[in-house]
Structure formats: C-alpha cells, structure tokens
Amino acid sequence: MTLFGDGLEAAVQKAFTRPAPKSAGAQMRYLVKQLKGTKAVAQMLRISQRTVERYVKDQIKRPRADLAARLEREVKKRWQPQIRAKAREKAATTGGIVIDTRARMGYTAPIGSTDQDRIRHLTVALPPRYAARLFDAQEAGASDRELQEIAAEALKEVYFQDGGRRAGSLEEVRFTDVEHLEFDL
Fold it and tell me: What is the pTM of this model?
C-alpha cells in the first residue's frame, strides 16, 4: 500500500459522477467489456477463465476477500477515465490540491533557530504546479518516497516560507512519520 499514491487516487475518485459497479458480477462484466475478453480478465486477476465466466453469468456471487479487493481496485482504476483526466487537469492548471496531514515535520535552518521535529496537523492548499508535479510523478511510476519529497517541498514553500514572505534561509523540510494523509481537489 502506498500512502501518497493511494491518497492521490482517492482524491481523483471523489470527482466521479457515477458510482462504480458494486456487485462482483457487475464488476466482472465491466472488466470483460474493458479488456475485451474473459481470458485477459482471468490473467489480470490471477483466476481461471471459467471462474470469470461464472461471475459474468452470476453463477458465483461472492468472491473471496483477496479477489474482491483486487476486483474493486482494478474496476476503480479504469472507471470514468475522462472524468479522472479532467479532474487531474483542473487541479494541475487552475485549482491546485489540498493536503490534510498529520505527520512529524521539522526543517534544516541556520544555527540559532528552533528546528526541532514535531507532530503537526496541517491542512494546506497547494498551488497547481505542485498538483501537476504530484500527478506527473505518480503517472511516471514514482515511489511513495518521491511523492513524499514533492509534498515536503510544497509544504516548505507554502506553509513554512509562506510564498517567500518568511523563513527565507530555510534549507530543507523533513516530512516523516505520516499518521494521516488525505488529498482533495
């Protein structure tokens, strides 16, 4: 589970205009339609082709817990791609993204200043350029650590330096021990 990647996905999914299919049969039919065949769905979900066909015909109604989780994840990954793209585009160009986090934060600053790490709960609106960087990095397959570094850089500029109005000599922000993280578009 990636905290930052899943958080960005959840934020984009809030923009959906219709709910994704809920039942196993409906989810399976959607995936079969998207991937154009039961064989591709079976390979993706690591089950037999015959099992996929049974779900499509509603002969099996309740999947195992691990299969249900994979099935839901794959459906949500493909659900409403145009709405998903528009939400990302809006956040990256005009709207920006809001980060709500509770984590240990500190910073590196010149000698004589208080740079002790401490738990902070922040809700900060990040400018569109950081939303664009986060989404671009996520699409490029960036690790959770890389996404965390982009978020730390954004918090440094927006929260600690207030857009250049204070703490100009701040060198680096440490953003660790994340207890809670949520994004909103």
Answer: 0.80
